[in-house]
Amino acid sequence: MNTITRISTNQKGDRIAIVSDISPEHIVQKQLDAYNARDIDAFLATYSNTIKVFSYPNELNYEGKEAMKKSYASFFDSTPDLHCEIKNRIVIGNKVIDEEFLTINGKNYAAAAIYEVKNGKIVKVTFIQ
């Protein structure tokens, strides 16, 4: 079960209802799996329409899913060896912080990403490189 958001019982107290949301960690992992598969549609499905992507500390790179699609579609097409491995992951509330090791066109990079998730979608990402 994912994050439990509400629990209630009926008046007799002999039945219980549990409402759960998909955890922020699960959403970010789905995003990572789609990234590694270079599946642009599955990748974008994890983001809100109003996604904001920043470079640390607070430089806005772009805003909105359409801008993200333009950026990542060509990137996925031009990087057949694209792969991201998570070295460490910290989850605090609705934030997921990943220490990443990336392979892009034969070169290796270290980076960190801070994802903020609301209502089952990633709404903000800050990259540290």
Polypeptide structure, described:
The chain is α+β, with helices and mostly antiparallel strands. The protein has a single domain (3-128), classed as Nuclear Transport Factor 2, Chain: A (Roll), CATH 3.10.450.50. 24% of the residues lie in helices and 52% in strands. It contains 3 helices and 8 strands; from the N terminus they run E-E-H-H-E-E-H-E-E-E-E. It has helices at residues 24-36, 40-44, 65-77, and strands at residues 3-9, 16-21, 47-55, 59-63, 83-92, 95-104, 107-118, 121-128. The strands form 2 sheets. The chain has a 6-stranded mixed beta sheet with strand order 4-3-8-7-6-5. A two-stranded antiparallel ribbon has the order 1-2. The longest helix is centred in the first third of the chain and has 13 residues, at 24-36.
CATH class: Alpha Beta
Q: Compute the gyration radius: what is it?
A: 17 Å
Strand order of the largest sheet: 4-3-8-7-6-5
Name the average pLDDT: 93
Enumerate how many helices there are, as a single number. Answer: 3
- What is the number of beta strands? 8
Q: Which consecutive residue ranges, at least 5 long each, have pLDDT under 50?
A: none
Q: What's the structural domain tally?
A: 1
Secondary structure category: alpha+beta
- Briefly note the CATH topology name: Nuclear Transport Factor 2, Chain: A
Q: Could you describe the largest sheet, including whether it forms a barrel?
A: 6 strands, mixed
Q: What shape does the CA trace take?
A: elongated
